[in-house]
Amino acid sequence: MNQVASVDKWLQANLPTAHNSSITGSLAPLRFEGVGYYDVPPERMFAAISDPDAMSKWLPMLKSLHISHDASENGPVACGVGSERSCSFSMMGNVTERVIWWNPPHGYAFTFQPTNKMMVPTQNHAVVFLVEPDGNGGSKFIFRTHFDWLPGMMRFMAARMMPMMLNMGFANLKKQLGGKGGNFRRIA
Question: Which residue from 93, 104, 145, 186 has the least number of CB within 10 angstroms?
Fold first, then answer.
C-alpha cells in the first residue's frame, strides 16, 4: 500500500469522534492536492515542511508560527501527536493547528482551525503532508487538504486563492531545494 493510501486509511480509523472535536467522524473530502519533486533526501524534505523556521521561508503569507509541545505524545520538547502550532497569515488571520499524525520522515497531518471563518470558510479542515523517496535520491512531496466548505460568498474566492497561494509555496521550495517543483490543484 502506498504512503498516501496508508495515511488516509489510518486517519479514517483514528480521527476523533467527540462532538466538540475539530474533525468529527471521518476525514472531510479531499479538496486540493499538490505533488512536487525536489532534489533533497526525504529527511531534508521533512525538515523543510515541519520545522517552523524552514516553513516561514516557503509558505506564502505565513507571518509567524509558534509551536507548543506541552501535549505532545513525545514529551514537552519534541513534536508529535498533540503538538499545537499557532500561526498568523496575511489576509487569512490566525490559525490553530494540532498534529494528529506524526511519522518522520514520511509525513504528518494536522487539523487547521482558522479563527476568521469569513476569510477561510472551512470546517473539519485537516492537512496531510507526505514525503516519499523519488527513486533518484530526491523526494516526492504530497500536500493534501481536506475540509468541508461553509456557505457564503468568500468560499468562491477562497477556492481560487488557495491553489494560487500553495503553488507559490511549491515554487519557493523549488528555489530552495532544487528539483522540478510541483503543482497544486483543486480536486473537488
Answer: 186
Q: Are 187 and 33 in contact (CB under 8 A)?
A: yes
State which H helix or E strand residue 85 sits in: strand 84-89
Look up cell 487539523; give the residue: 111
Q: How far apart are CA 173 and CA 55, in angstroms?
A: 10
For 76-104, what is each residue's pLDDT tens digit? Answer: 999 999 999 999 999 889 999 999 999 99
Q: Which of 89, 131, 130, 88 is nearest to 110 (CA)?
A: 130
On whether the CB atoms of residues 49 and 131 are closer than 8 A, the answer is yes
Separation of alpha carbons 185 and 31, rounded Å? 9
| Whole-number Cα distances in Å, 90 to 8, 60, 62, 94, 119 | 30, 9, 7, 9, 11
Contacts for 162 with CB less than 8 Å, ≥ 6 apart: 31, 32, 145, 184, 186
Q: How many Cα atoms sit within 13 Å of 41 on the Cβ side? A: 3
